[in-house]
TrEMBL record:
UniProt gene name: recF
Name listed for the protein in its UniProt record: DNA replication and repair protein RecF
A biological-process GO annotation: DNA synthesis involved in DNA repair
SMART domains: AAA
Protein family according to the UniProt entry: Belongs to the RecF family.
Amino acid sequence: MITLDPTDFPEPTAGAASLRPGVMRPAITRLVLTGFRNYPTLRLALDPAPVVLTGPNGAGKTNLLEAVSMLAPGRGLRGARLGEMDRLIPGVEGRSGGGWAVAATVETADGPVEVGTGLAGGGLERERRIVRVDGRNASAAELGRRWSVLWVTPAMDRLFVEAAGNRRRFFDRLVYGLDPDHAGRIAAYEQAMRERARLLRDGRRDPAWLGTLEATMAAKGVAIAAARLGFASQLKSVLAAGGHGFPKARIAIEGEVEAALAGQPALAVEDGLARRLAENRGIDADTGTTRAGVHRTDLAVTHEGNGMPAARCSTGEQKALLLALVLAVARLKRTVEGSAPILLLDEVAAHLDAERRDALYDVLVSLGAQAWLTGTDRPLFAGLGGGRAQFVRITDASAIRDQIVDPAGTPLPAAGDHDRG
């Protein structure tokens, strides 16, 4: 794995981190990329305020957001395999195969945390993610227990009209932000489901083995459903409080296990799911599917203002509803835990009218979240001028920070103008 020297992290300008005392942590104050996507190396010093990345298409803005998303559990905002993030060398077929690394200093309520993650060399055939926290080996799950990262990308524009699985995975990622153990439950459930499907496909119907797997699916499934319902209940109260310039969204969790929990004790639902899985062995073997379980749940979203399902709303209103959900989750997390998540908003501003752009910027600043926004044109972010955000110009895999302007309008030295190194 590529290693990163602590000296790659220059000290930010004195006072930069305290420019905005209302900013809620966590916030990335130092970021180093090595061999990641189109970046040979990149070093960037920041303060806790929102970060605006501008530059031409193809310069590497989204790649930088993806690097930040790897400071959380999972496969990042593109859902890519680890080897696909390896540096693509111009003019050379294939990727470098040398591994990549993302390192950062994250300011938290408990003080700064030094974190690094990356892929050991070996490419697509030998993918193994490495995570280090404060100099020791750690699991990716530990990152989720320390902070959360949420994102909205252009790939999510059709979320409300796509298959239910995409909405379910989206909602489960939201749940992770308040319940990091939710990811482990889902992983255990899906592993048991895959193993059961393999046994049925191969004709190996050992009742004891299948029964054990189905018991695991039932126990984890009920825990997953309960976590979804609990989170949805909390989120509904935030959504009901108002959209802050965005449409009110009404949500519902639609799934047989979730519905059963509304009227039965959890143990009864667990026993019922295990029994149904056992009864379905024959048809599941014939169809190659698993007909019962929490992997079939859907998230229903409705525009509160007109009563229209999100799938039938205009493209613009769907985008606004998606943002309303993510911002509501950020408000919920700040209320419950005292700090907002890191937000990654890729090409969001370009698809909002001026009124909603200004509303978005006001919400981000009031949240105290370190939001990362991308766009080709700086004028789109005029509402974040006057010291409300820090601006970074991305060109050809290099980054240059603009001057910081304090609330009085006085230019201050940037916390670090760092390019590809």
